[in-house]
């Protein structure tokens, strides 16, 4: 069986040590025992070795029992979660490492939620058992309270040979078929194992074991247990006639060679197979040059890959992260929308004489690899802006740019990225009819649930507007970032419903529906009640009792909210939410007044109505009427002359309303 696994952990929980210990047992790393030099194998990037954290995901390949394993290492810091999330999408199983001394931390909870959101069955390994400060009962309690009530502690593979009563009870409580056998006294260990496999797959059971990655305690036992309790079904999928694979990562070799990493989901892929892509209406054909299976920085080439394999492909220029590749149809390489949105934006300040366009080109290479790092160039000011999740990503980015390109840059102060949405449904109209052109569009804008982004639907019958025009309107809804009217921030969380549209037999030309669609959205926004949104963090704070009063006062001052504090020994634990704008610098403040005894972890947690909209709107000073790139007016034609009608009068002229 082929199994793709990912290991997840809060920084410092021991992910690198654990991964290497596994590779050591599997015979991938020979000679030296692990622990001598943690990170030497998987953390190939010099910067990671220097910082001792894993920033870039790498893959490893090994055999255990009769199975082939692909291990994809994930970035440890939350600022790099874009990549983590794409990797989660291709995993069969996940292993979540929890430090047996630090316990379940804010980031552990975030990772567990990401895994659950994408339906990945998860095993938990409680690490650092060798330390005197290791506290299994406390950590198991935290796992139950903060992660899942369906966790099941298994001491090792022996727990499957002679299952303790509580294991059988756990399964019987969750599985009716097993319950019957259990009540009849017919529950063999093999039956129990089969039902456990199912429960784990359905995420009704999360096996927990413990050990020490550094001292090699319980790691081999974990592997044995894992291999007994996991199954995949790729053998069947491998026989399918056409190939399907999902791209989860893009990399560039120093010579510029583009590597497309993918997980094969069905069929077979061979060297010289071709993919066809739709690149803005043109079909481009790209051929697979080589197939590689990576182990750390090294790779082996293959002639073919089958369902279940994790491979890097060279020769493909068009696919992006998230693209599903298939050999039996033309592929549209669209980006998947991600719920993790970069919350901050900073200006790039060049510190050497690198030309701006070369700098831009290099940054675009990085954002091809990590779409969470958005790079924009502002024509007017000649500035390059990068969007990131948090401050640490900027620091790391500075070092990556220096070591990879030998280019010195710094960043201006990070600015919060606002969004806009609407409070209630509204209908927008757009008409575009300069001489010998024609298109009219009527769209209803409805508020979407928070975090859903822009969606599109059509209520328009194909007899009233042919399907090709409807598709065109849909594509124009998504072909640009629509600007809100309050601050010019990107519009989000709006469902755009096509109610009606009109084309002209002779005069409707290429860009006409584009104009009409964009104007209709903008006209709707002019009429709507707009809401300014700002990014929020979810935070987890640990402080001593003596500092609690100050922390609570600070949270209130920073417009945050929090749940009742929980005692954990002498330390208090607080969880809450607050605006990125006010909390982005709080960790420095907290660490300083608690003299290092307090800590805060912040994770991006979606957008909420802004806490100080008037202030923000005034400081941005956006003038919607002067934003000529985003008109809300319509263009009509009478007696051979075209004329512009402002948004507030446009409806009187619309043809769909006649
Ligand atoms: P990562 O940040 O999650 O990749 O963690 P690392 O594998 O780099 O480990 C972080 C630190 O914890 C290193 O100093 C390791 O030597 C140490 N460490 C990892 N596993 C264990 C363990 O089982 N016991 C002890 N005592 N230390 C460990
Ligand atoms: Mg690491």
Describe the overall structure:
The protein has about 650 residues and is of the alpha+beta class. The chain is built from 19 helices and 34 strands. The strands form 8 sheets. Strands 2-3-1-4-5-7-6 form a 7-stranded mixed beta sheet, with helices on both faces. Strands 14-13-16-9-8-17 form a 6-stranded antiparallel beta sheet. It is globular, with a radius of gyration of 28 Å. Mean pLDDT is about 90; it is low at about 30-35 and about 50-55. Bound molecules: guanosine-5'-diphosphate (GDP) and magnesium ion. Guanosine-5'-diphosphate (GDP) binds near residues 11, 38, 39, 76 and 130.
- Give the overall silhouette: globular
| Chemical compounds bound to the protein | guanosine-5'-diphosphate, magnesium ion
Q: Uncertain segments of ≥5 residues (pLDDT<50)?
A: 32-36, 50-57
Bin the helical content: 25-40%
Beta-strand share of residues: 25-35%
Number of strand segments: 34
* Main sheet record: 7 strands, mixed
Average predicted confidence as pLDDT? 88
Strand order of the largest sheet: 2-3-1-4-5-7-6
How many DSSP helices? 19
Features:
34 strands, alpha+beta, 6-stranded antiparallel beta sheet, 19 helices, 31% strand, binds guanosine-5'-diphosphate, 7-stranded mixed beta sheet, binds magnesium ion, 658 residues, single chain, 28% helix, globular
Please outline the helices and strands.
Elements: E1 2-9, H1 15-25, H2 46-51, E2 59-64, E3 67-73, H3 81-88, E4 93-99, H4 106-117, E5 122-127, H5 136-147, E6 151-153, H6 158-161, H7 165-174, H8 176-183, H9 189-201, E7 206-210, H10 219-228, H11 234-237, E8 244-252, E9 258-266, E10 268-270, E11 274-279, E12 282-287, E13 290-295, E14 298-302, E15 304-306, E16 310-314, E17 324-326, E18 344-350, H12 356-369, E19 374-378, E20 383-388, H13 391-405, E21 409-411, E22 415-416, E23 419-422, E24 426-432, E25 439-447, E26 454-458, H14 467-478, E27 494-503, H15 512-527, E28 530-544, H16 548-557, E29 561-562, E30 566-568, E31 571-579, H17 580-583, H18 586-593, E32 599-609, H19 613-620, E33 634-638, E34 641-645
Parallel strand pairs: 1-3, 1-4, 4-5, 5-7, 6-7, 26-27
Antiparallel strand pairs: 2-3, 8-9, 8-17, 9-16, 10-15, 11-12, 13-14, 13-16, 18-20, 18-21, 18-22, 19-20, 23-28, 24-25, 25-27, 28-31, 28-32, 29-31, 30-31, 33-34
Helix pairs in contact: 7-8, 14-15
